[in-house]
Amino acid sequence: MNKTLAAAAALIPLAAGCTVAGNASGGDGSDTIVVGYQSKTINTVTAGTLLRSLGAFEKRLKDLGKAEGKSYKVVWQDYDTGAPITAQMLAGKIDIGSMGDYPLLINGSRSQAQGGDAETEWVSVTGYNLRGSLNGVVVSNASKARTLRDLKGKAVSASVGSAGHGTLVQAARKYGLDAAKDLKIENQQPTVGSSALQAGSAAALAQFVAWPGLLVNKGQARLLYDGGALNVPTFHGVVVRKQFAKERTKILEAFLAAQIDATRSLHADPVKAAESVASSTGLPAETVYLYNGAGGVATFDPTIKKDLRAAFVQDVPFLKSIGVIQTPLKVDPFVNDTYIRKVVGASYERDAASTANPAAITGTDAVCKTAVNDPATAGEVWVAGEAKTRPVADPVCLLRNVRALQAEGKKLRAVYIPDATTGTRWFADKDVWVEDPSAKAAQRFKPFATQEAADKYVAAHSGAKVVAYAEAVRRA
Q: Where is the signal peptide, in residue numbers (predicted)?
């Protein structure tokens, strides 16, 4: 987010009066706004976990209340997936919610079918990835599967209708598989699916952020399919009941301004933000930072971008084809950037047109003595006891940094580097590393998030071979 956008939240005139429709009241007589979120779906933190911990929405509502001579109360309701948030919104029990693109589409479809006061609209984005790297399929470390094709006839856990499920179905088609016929898809919550994978009752788990990274980070699984290989944008966003937005516009604007506050806070100190989210959710900070850190898998920007809207339109017939929705969503009346456009201000069009990660990795590589300025190769080393990560220029420099730090006796919390093919940021020590003797010295070692990607590179480059991470560190 640029400085103009970052400052926009501070410019929202919360002191202006507004007419507010009747809503649930707290026991103390205050008006209650109910927000549904997914604490462990960390791509929504700027409208959920981080926003809640910062108290930014409550602060803005307090300012609004002073101007109106009343008080507001926020009730936060936490769910594992977007489906129950949609159910509660259709029942008029949740005012504002955050969820992934597929659940958003389902939300809009069902709200339009129900009509009346139940209708909803998508009003902002939390985080996104243009290639789809927020989703993935993982298998146990002992699994012999090397591609999705190897899952044919086996049980795969997924939350049906989620972005993770959608990635599985679309990716399976590229391998000549019909997910409904060739895979035994078990419709399970992420926590249940994770347990099923560990117990061996599921051969794989197809899920959204942060489950693939969590299981890999804990050493309980490996990435079989990188959603970035699908090259289809995926995102999470904010949805609101239309009636609420129309009648309580100033409250919605306060929420969106608070979302910008949270986004600015995340960009200003991503390590602190990751630690905060980790504390609130119980997730390892290293996993949170994989997705939400500088140069992370997720890019946080509240504007609704054309690429994301276009992908959303393409998802409508796809979800209908697999039976997740019955009534095709009318996209135009569902997508409404009016509110976030007003909150952001004059820079909205420029910000919405940009897809550069505003939290890029920058600085100087301490070992290679070079500037870190290429997001396609830049990585980070997180040293235990240090409040900031150390930037590295490229994969070979990362290996050299790790070697130097190990020689100093330093303990490393995590090491991050983009996949050489998809650009998906992953844990360097969990990557499959390939040595290519024909490449220049500075490009001799290449990281891949999946075995399949590494195999493809080796097959296409004579002399290239897979090497253990420790061996790559020793020889870089």
A: 1-21
